[in-house]
Write a structure and sequence with these properties.
The protein is α+β, with helices and mostly antiparallel strands. It contains three helices and three strands, in the order αβαββα. A three-stranded antiparallel beta sheet has the order 1-2-3, with helices on one face. The two termini are 31 Å apart. The structure holds zinc ion.
Amino acid sequence: MKEARFESPTDVVRWLQDEAAGLWPALLGSLSFRRSPCVRENCPACRSGEQHSSYVLYGRLKGRRVAVYVPEELVPEVRRGLDNGRALQELLQQAAPRYIKALKQERARAPKSKKR
Ligand SMILES: [Zn+2]
């Protein structure tokens, strides 16, 4: 991570936008794998104990837990989105101190009367 000596708040916003541009779709939640039996009688998969695998994405919406079934063929795409979501969170964590530092430097260079 290289840090420019005098980065302006605008520079930080530009950096953040550039970095975030490649992180879409960004998703949050946790993808769970589960096995469960089905309702069919004499199902070979259930009788063998193999059962049926499925994926569920758990997330929170306004404090409430939500669960969404994810078809197996969509799992790689959902995983990519979740990886992006983690990367975006990491990016926002990095952005906070960097942006505040830029604001402080800008304030330090401004005339004293404009200081708050
Ligand atoms: Zn079954």
